[in-house]
Amino acid sequence: MSDEEEIIYASCEKKNWDPKKGIGCCHCHKWEHFKCKNVLEKAIPKLRSKPYFCSDGCLAAHESVPRSSAVDAELLNRMNELMSEVKGIKNTVTEIEKSQTFISGEFDKLMKEMVVLKKDHNNLTKNVGDLYGKHQTVNTKVSQLELEVDRLARAELTNNMVILGLPSPKDEDVGDLVRKVATSVGYNLPEGAIKEAKRLFPKDKNNTRATIPIKVTFSDERIKEGLFAGKKARGQL
């Protein structure tokens, strides 16, 4: 509100928004503090009950214009009501301004938080993309390893041979038995040809007279094939 809209009290020339602390002249509309006029508090209602004139000149000027006292009183009361309403409006505007300031501050905070969240979201998106790429790489390597394991397993099977009918002497050396079999069919096993040679578990543990098969794993499929060829050419051992 501007200074022109405030109440300026004539005696002390102070500005004040509270019309309850003074009274306005019905003719010149100048306001006077009750305190400046030395009006006691108990006399205020009586002073307000009728039109107030700050001087005899205002009273004479007012009386020179024909009007009813009822109209004057109504105008004065209405003016006082309007001043009270103006004060209420000013207070409301002040509260609105405070609310707008608060809302503006909260909005700024929210915008800053949104910027941080957007940055975090971008970082997460990038990290997810990196992890997805690494996941694809790991999947590819796992698939390659599975293929290699399968190839090795199949290769291992092709290098295996089962020899039947060989008795189990005491303190036997299974590898030495296999080498003797190879020699008996005219096939000389090269150094390191046997990777593993062992007896299999018997099907019937109670049958102690049954011979237990020997499983041999050669280092190369060609060694197994050579031994088979020698056995075929030699016939029954």
List the helices and strands and how they pair.
Layout: E1 7-8, E2 15-16, E3 22-24, E4 31-33, H1 44-48, H2 56-64, H3 69-158, E5 160-163, H4 174-184, E6 194-199, E7 214-218, H5 221-234
Antiparallel strand pairs: 1-2, 3-4, 5-7, 6-7
**Which class of secondary structure composition applies to the elements?**
mainly alpha
Query: What is the percent of helical residues?
Result: 40-55%
Order of helices and strands: EEEEHHHEHEEH
Quick check: average pLDDT?
82
Outline: rod-shaped
Coiled coil: 79-155
InterPro entries: Znf_FYVE_PHD, Znf_RING/FYVE/PHD
Keywords: Coiled coil
Q: Can you characterise this structure?
A:
Residues 79-155 form a coiled coil. The protein is 54% helix and 11% strand. The protein is mostly helical and 237 residues long. The chain has three domains: 22-65, no CATH class; 85-157; 159-234. It has a three-stranded antiparallel β-sheet with strand order 5-7-6. Strand 1 (7-8) and strand 2 (15-16) form a beta hairpin.
Brief account:
With 237 residues, the chain is mainly alpha-helical. It is built from five helices and seven strands.
Key traits:
3 domains, 237 residues, disordered N terminus, Znf_FYVE_PHD, two-stranded antiparallel ribbon, coiled coil, Znf_RING/FYVE/PHD, three-stranded antiparallel β-sheet, mainly alpha
